[in-house]
Amino acid sequence: MKSIPIQAPLYPEPPYRYPGARGILIIYETDPESIKKVLPDVLEVGDMPLAFLGVMEYPECDPLGPYNEAYLMVQAKCGDVAAWFNPFMWVTTEEALTAGREIWGFPKKMADIKLVREGEKVTGVVERKGVRFIEATVEPTGPLDMPFEASIMTLKQMLKGDGAGLEVKRVLLTTNPLEITKMMAGEGSIRFEKSEEDPAYLLEPKKISASVYVEYNMTLPYGKIIKTIV
User: Fold this and answer.
1) CA torsion angle for 10, 16, 17, 18 (degrees, to 10)?
2) Vertex 112: Cα angle to 110 and 117 (nearest 5)
3) Would you say 53 and 44 are in contact if contact means Cβ atoms under 8 Å apart?
4) Using an 8 Å Cβ cutoff, are 147 and 136 in contact?
5) Has residue 166 been placed in a domain?
6) Domain enclosing residue 78, as ranges
7) Count of domains for the chain
């Protein structure tokens, strides 16, 4: 076991399996300058100024247990590699938070995350420190058959224990195999509330490209290091 405390680690080693994951995904156009604001210095804006928001329920995760998650991704490049980069992510359990940050560099914070259903309409809400800073809705209108692959870049960055610079600064690429069991297209909307601690508002939508309700089975493996700075 590679995490701590050694006698009773907070989380086990990957892969992690997510049967029955469900939630909403909204892909949209945003301003390239907005994307630039959320990228680390080792990445560039991708060929298309796209972002996407996900608000998910994971009723099972083997072996972390159930939790909810919300995230924002943007199109970015690291050299010749183009993928979604993850500048913001929120979860509802300490196991999901700690494993995600320490293993892959997912920028997870704790938040209150809910999916609210009213008939066919599904609304994702994210709240932290008393601020409801994300509210997104998808109202499905019909089935959708669209290929979907989750290849995600993250920045894993850690300080040295004595404060003398960085211990680690690396870009990872993680590909999550997905088995889509249900996908419904629909009408979507996003509303960001300004929060300096959780500045999702920096990625304000200009035009929504696709709004989806989705159910799938997923496996989260170790990532691959594609760039080492430190």
Assistant:
1) 60
2) 145
3) no
4) no
5) no
6) 16-150+177-224
7) 1
